[in-house]
Design brief:
CATH topology of the largest domain: Chloramphenicol Acetyltransferase
CATH class of the largest domain: Alpha Beta
Radius of gyration: 24 Å
Largest sheet: 7 strands, mixed
Number of strands: 11
Shape: elongated
Helix content: 25-40%
Length: 300
Amino acid sequence: MPEVIAPPSVRALARQKGIDIEKLAKDIGRTSIAREDVEGGGSAGSPSAGAVPSASTETSYWDVDHAQYGPVSAEPMSRFAQVAAQNMAAAQTLIPAVTHHDSADVSAVEAFRKELKEEAQARGVRLTPLGFHVKALARTLREFPKFNASLSADGKMLFLKDYVHIGIAVDTAHGLMVPVIRDADRKGLWQIARDIADIASRAQERKVRPEEMGGASMTISSLGGIGGEAFTPIVNPPEVAILGITRTAIVPEWDGETFRPVPKVPLDLSYDHRVINGADAARFLGYYAGLIAEPRRMVI
């Protein structure tokens, strides 16, 4: 049999477990042995055979004495952050997610916001671009009901929702929170702007009530105020899709005669491929981008 290839750490682990690494390689029919092969003992249920790794196998990868490589310090993860991490890991493991990327022209949104500036001040409301995104998403979910749905745990039933609640991912000092704007499709732009300001402020102060955190039709994760050109947001189960938004950029666009500068906002739609296919996603974002390009359509 050809020479077995295995890192020193893997050979050391095999010795600790009393495993003959040459015999293990012969049993699984490979000459390259990884740590998970040894952890699984080379059985048919080991990760190398295509099974989902066990909790003990997964944990072993992080069970490292980092101090042996240099100075370190440690700080505990908050209970809130631990729960969020577990949920995201489960979502990433169980959902076959795909991300579709597009962009929308925000020229009209910015012009409309400028036009409404004095009225916004008089109302005491800060009219941000996010308000237009919430309104556009609510309208789009009504147009594409399959996105406003949840899949049963066994994957055999799709629950279509006759309401539109939009989750807003809020970055706080104690972790990511996703409070929900209820019945966004039935609210005007001013009310949505008030709701966004309210939940964002209370999220920072940890004053969001438990009943305000669940039941979203879909979530928006906006990094527009921070930066970036694109990302792949993780679907927030039991939702079947999530919309990511990054920083608006001026891009050259050909109008048939010349290039003109156009402010475009990148859009990143991650979706559960068990429910939604690529054509659905393309049509969904195309419709959504059309609403953003003509915001007055959303408030008439």
